[in-house]
């Protein structure tokens, strides 16, 4: 009988075999649909008890899915599958099937049996009831709908945009500042925000002094647009709701109510539960709402909350607090020089993640893309596509004019784009796979039997017949182990 040992492998090879070191995890940014699909059915049922959540889900559904939902919303019996399929042309059969899968995974509708053995679709009763309330009115008033006297110190949209961005900059400055107690411009960040950054693995404790330092995912987070950053940050906050003693469904409903609010209008905090009042103060710290004093009975939602999930959101606010479309400020030349017309410390710090900064003037920063600076960004977890996307997103209008003149797909010089990708390819010569090693076989026959079985079920990563060593995938380890036990007991 042979003896096999299994252990996690951590080695690399340059001769065509796969390295067995797992790649560091990338930042996973879920949209609303992906977030809800990750929730168990009973949790979805609880969330759909809130009309604001049902309305937000309906708003973000694909267009065909919204058509299906609204057509059967007032039908009190299941609709046969064939009837629903007939609502669209056969040309779009694949799209209809995909939409049906989305609605099923979100728990919006379910398949049920009909008389005669047919199958039909019916909306989830909880979702159906509360979507009707959201669209037609009725039910319990929304938690922030109490009437208010005119505010003698009302705030306009321009002020709210400036306030929101100044608060959100605190979080970004803290990350770029490598864990300093204050942002780069002296703004403070709340301990609660630091805990969320650590929970989301955007930052981690340094092994030497315990101070927070940015992670691979944190670098990727900084290159997202503001709306995506706020949504990902709030999802991480919602993951910690139960630990804070807050109700997830109640907080999520409040968040969506803010997204349906009118920008520039004040709302009442009277009558909110203690949990929602705590949640409101956290939103205030992150810049999603403005409130002059903690005990004041009114607050103003900001654009950060207003655009939290909407795919058709108004362009996000800029560093100066304006709500206009982001103006390009970066010029990239064919000699890899980068000129950034900005006085924002945050934008300068972001450029410094992947460029070597040379000069800084009051409203201009000059840097250069070098192999070392770009590879340093790669080591931090930033990808070539993210660097290129960031430079394209903030390209100066003159670069777009050149793009139209020479009829290229990118506003950046092709030589720069190609070189950044080549620098990345230098680091991607290996394929990384996590696996389990089997060795110390007592006979060649035992090795051949187990090797052939692993190959037959498609879990073999690498094998060496001379040393009687093989590596299988982590997921296939259990099947191979069970087979080996059966084979050993059979006296093979």
Structural account:
There is one protein chain. This protein has helices spanning 32-37, 41-47, 51-60, 63-72, 81-85, 93-105, 125-136, 157-176, 191-199, 216-222, 226-239, 241-244, 248-259, 274-286, 303-306, 345-351, 371-379, 384-393, 397-406, 414-427, 444-456, 477-489, and strands spanning 5-8, 79-80, 109-113, 119-123, 203-205, 212-214, 267-268, 289-290, 298-301, 330-332, 337-340, 356-361, 364-368, 435-439, 460-464, 469-473. By secondary structure, the chain is α+β, with helices and mostly antiparallel strands. It has 4 domains: 32-136, Arc Repressor Mutant, subunit A, CATH 1.10.10; 157-308, no CATH class; 330-428, no CATH class; 435-491, Alpha-Beta Plaits (2-Layer Sandwich). The chain has a 4-stranded antiparallel beta sheet with strand order 1-14-16-15, with helices on one face. A 4-stranded antiparallel beta sheet has the order 10-11-13-12, with no helix packed on it. A 3-stranded antiparallel beta sheet has the order 2-4-3. A hairpin with a 6-residue loop joins β5 (203-205) and β6. The radius of gyration is 28 Å and the shape is globular.
Strand content: 5-15%
Using the CA coordinates, give the radius of gyration. Answer: 28 Å
Average pLDDT level: 82
Please give the count of helices: 22
End-to-end distance, in Å? 7 Å
Strand order of the largest sheet: 1-14-16-15
Helix share, percent:
40-55%
Q: Structural class of the secondary structure composition?
A: alpha+beta
Keywords: DNA damage, DNA repair, Nucleus, Transcription, Transcription regulation
Main location: nucleus
Protein name: General transcription factor IIH subunit 4
Pfam families: Tfb2, Tfb2_C
